Amino acid sequence: MDMNQYLEVFIEESKEHLQTCSEQLLVLEKNPEDLSIVNEIFRSAHTLKGMSATMGYEDLANLTHKMENVLDAIRNSQIVLSPELFDVIFLAVDDLEAMVMSIAEGGDGKRNVKDVVHQLEMIEKGESPFSSTIAEIAAASAVLEKKEVIAGEYDECE
Q: Same domain, yes or no, for 17 and 63?
């Protein structure tokens, strides 16, 4: 079967589903207890995953599948929403949008999404991909504070 005849429909519907995901994520941020919003995002992600796999865009389908797994755990109250979790889901949607735009521009839709996939997998397992980031931020902050103190001491000598 020649998939090129369906490409335009795939691109337009993908854009619509990704727009729904983005808009509903913003609504969900304001109403994190409303699981009907999660269900709507899940449906759009699920449809996008199926369309991507059918069209042969495995990278797009795989990333969407990882996002879908996290959304499923949220709607089943296995994962609690947090600002950091929203950040990861928004990153995934951004990557999906870039992949669809690549396809729309004649590209292959491939993108390095290893980091966001890893974060989604950790979230799905109940692990926090954020703890090391927080530790890294704290360490970097301590180094900056130390440099500021040293710089301040030199300034006083002048």
A: yes
CATH of residue 64's domain is 1.20.120.160
DSSP 38-49: HHHHHHHHHHHH
111 Cβ contact partners less than 8 Å away, ≥ 6 residues apart: 59, 95, 98, 99, 102
pLDDT at 142 over 90: no
**Positive or negative torsion for Cα 15, 29, 122, 50:** negative
CA distance linking residue 154 with residue 35, whole number of Å: 56
What does the pLDDT look like over 61-115, one tens digit per residue? 999 999 999 999 999 999 999 999 999 999 999 999 999 999 999 999 999 999 9
Contact 66, 88 (CB under 8 A): no
Q: How many CB atoms lie under 10 A from the CB of residue 88?
A: 20
Give the burial string for 128-142 (b: 16+ CB within 10 Å, else e): ebbeeeeeeeeeeee
* Residue 118 token pair: 């890893």
List the domain range (segments joined by +) for residue 111.
4-127
